[in-house]
Specification:
Layout: H1 3-13, H2 17-43
Length: 44
């Protein structure tokens, strides 16, 4: 395998910084939604 092939393989499998940031934000938002739902249940 040549050197450029290794680099292209790593780039394909490794998510970009933007994709990684979006994934982290989505996980955080999902956690907040869950907390809000639990609080709403307790308030009612």
């Amino acid at each position: 395998m040549t050197e450029p092939d290794k680099q292209s393989e790593l780039q394909e499998t490794k998510p970009s910084r933007l994709e990684e940031a979006r994934r982290i934000i989505e996980e955080y938002a999902a956690g907040l939604r869950e907390i809000i739902q639990k609080l709403r249940r307790k308030m009612n």
